[in-house]
Amino acid sequence: MDIQLYGFWRSIASFRVRVALKLKGLPFKEIPIDIMSGEQFTPDYDAVNAERVVPTLVHDGYRVFQSLAIIEYLDEVSPEPGLLPTDPADRAYARSLALVTVADVHPLVTPRVRNHLAKAFGQMVTQSQDGPSIGRARGWRPMSGSSPGDRRLRSS
């Protein structure tokens, strides 16, 4: 199995795929793409992924992008060990946790989204040591009890 992974060391999405590859014990060659310097917009990377995002997995010449699609693909082409629990409720819970990082956290650390928000909202988007901060200037506070770890899908 010939696998290349184009990614960025600080990318949450690239990290998810690296973890899946390591859990499955699949050898791969990692090719760094510096998204902070705009390397994803070069003609060389455009030839790999016209969407110009990381990660991109190339397996025997076939290209897959978007981390969850890559992880599902890896589980289908190399079923053992499986990455998801066998119980349907546990599988749903695992998927919901994955989607929290994809839909809720990831967009706020992606340069293209941060740049768009900075243009749209100006100083409302700031970058700090703890990551991006949106809306705090207007008294934004997280909702209490909104953490996905607060409860499971099953009722008690």
From the structure above, extract its key features.
156 residues, alpha+beta, Glutaredoxin, 2 domains, two-stranded antiparallel sheet, 5 helices, 40% helix, disordered C terminus
In what range is the share of β-strand residues? 15-25%
CATH class of the largest domain: Alpha Beta
Order of strands, main sheet, comes to 2-1-3-4
For the record, give the distance between the C-alpha atoms at the N and C termini, rounded to a whole number: 44 Å
Mean pLDDT: 80
CATH topology of the largest domain: Glutaredoxin
Compute the number of structural domains: 2
Q: Could you give the count of β-strands?
A: 6
Shape: flat
One letter per element, helices H and strands E, the order comes to EHEHEEHHHEE
- The poorly predicted ranges are 135-144, 146-156
| Rg result | 18 Å
Class from secondary-structure proportions: alpha+beta
Could you state the CATH homologous superfamily of the largest domain? Glutaredoxin
CATH architecture of the largest domain: 3-Layer(aba) Sandwich
Range of helix content: 40-55%
